[in-house]
Specification:
Blueprint lengths: L6 E5 L4 H12 L3 E5 L13 H12 L3 E5 L6 H15 L4 E4 L14 H29 L2 E6 L2 H6 L4 H21 L4 E9 L3 H8 L7 H16 L7 H7 L10 E5 L2 E5 L14 H6 L1 H5 L10 H14 L4
Parallel strand pairs: 1-2, 1-4, 2-3, 4-5, 5-6, 6-7
Antiparallel strand pairs: 7-8
Helix pairs in contact: 1-9, 3-4, 4-6
């Protein structure tokens, strides 16, 4: 599966997951714009060497790439990133929104300075980079977009309310763009990666220590053995597949780690219906409402409305 003559824009690609995506796509023929500000895992500072080093590695192995250090956190930055790819290669086929930062803390300590930078990088950043690329993709009637979400938001994780909120906002963006892109051969999916990167290391280190030193030693050993299996390179094949011309799916979420791939989906239980619903009925039928034995997976709001109307019609008096 190759990407010859295609142009990929990957944010946060100076290291970690983004670099693995860039290296793999370039090795399969893609021309890659490596975007990275070179900041710390919490978003402070900058260093253009990160993107330049990734590009040097790609070119050393026969690939074609350029470095970009514009920030994704503003409309101007997003436009500049896409413009750089267009100036060099005249097209954009793939956008992978991978740039991210973390600032973990208990919810009561999540002040604006911990929330807003994460929304700026993760959620707004994806908007600002994708929007100018979207125009190009609509005109060429082709595009592949991959957003990065997280189990921290999908499933919940302590101390990550800011990160989880920003990442899960990208699921809404993914689903809407998949619907809007369907008639233009633009496919949009999301990936929830599990990989040992700077961000994961930062979160693990900040998770707190056990009071019992022997128990902490055992935990550290187990964590170390587990983390060694979480090679970011094992996530890259899924990112590549979801951005390949042959990818048949859109609007979906895939979780990937240590060579394992699975799909997250949004399901709807059969539920309970009453034309005169009361608080007490919700209480009394809660198990039935929550029972997932006969769930469905609506493709969109219209599907859910169809299910609702079907339930109403099925319960009409004779």
């Amino acid at each position: 599966m190759r990407f010859d003559d295609q142009v990929a824009v990957i944010t946060g690609a100076g290291g970690g997951l983004g670099k693995q995506y860039a290296v793999l796509l370039a090795s399969r023929g893609a021309r890659v714009l490596v975007n990275d500000t070179g900041g710390s895992v919490t978003g402070s500072g900058s260093n253009t060497d990160a993107a330049a080093d990734a590009v040097e590695e790609i070119c050393r192995h026969g690939g074609e790439a350029i470095a970009d250090s514009n920030s994704v956190t503003s409309p101007a930055g997003g436009q500049a990133i896409i413009d750089a790819a267009l100036r060099r290669w005249g097209r954009v086929d793939i956008v992978i929104n991978n740039a991210g930062i973390v600032r973990d803390a208990p919810f009561e300590d999540i002040t604006a300075d911990r929330l807003e930078p994460l929304l700026d990088v993760h959620l707004k950043g994806a908007f600002y980079v994708t929007r100018p690329a979207w125009k190009v993709m609509r005109e060429q009637h082709y595009g592949r977009i991959l957003n990065t979400c997280s189990a921290a938001g999908l499933l919940g994780a302590e101390r990550m309310s800011n990160y989880g909120a920003a990442k899960t906002g990208l699921i809404g963006l993914t689903r809407v763009l998949a619907a809007e892109g369907a008639d233009h051969n633009i496919k949009v999916n999301a990936i929830a990666p599990i990989a040992y990167t700077r961000m994961l290391a930062h979160s693990v280190d900040g998770a707190g220590q056990q009071d019992d030193t022997s128990a902490q030693a055992v935990l550290d050993d187990l964590v170390g053995q587990y983390l060694q299996k979480l090679d970011p390179a094992l996530v890259a094949p899924v990112a590549a597949f979801l951005t390949h011309p042959d990818c048949p799916v859109s609007g979906e979420i895939y979780t990937v780690g240590a060579g394992h791939v699975a799909r997250f989906f949004i399901g709807r239980t059969k539920g309970f219906y009453s034309p005169a619903l009361s608080i007490e009925q919700v209480r009394d039928h809660l198990d039935e409402i929550r029972d997932d034995a006969q769930y469905t997976v609506p493709g969109g709001p219209a599907d859910e409305m169809s299910e609702l109307f079907a339930t109403i019609l099925a319960n009409q008096p004779e």
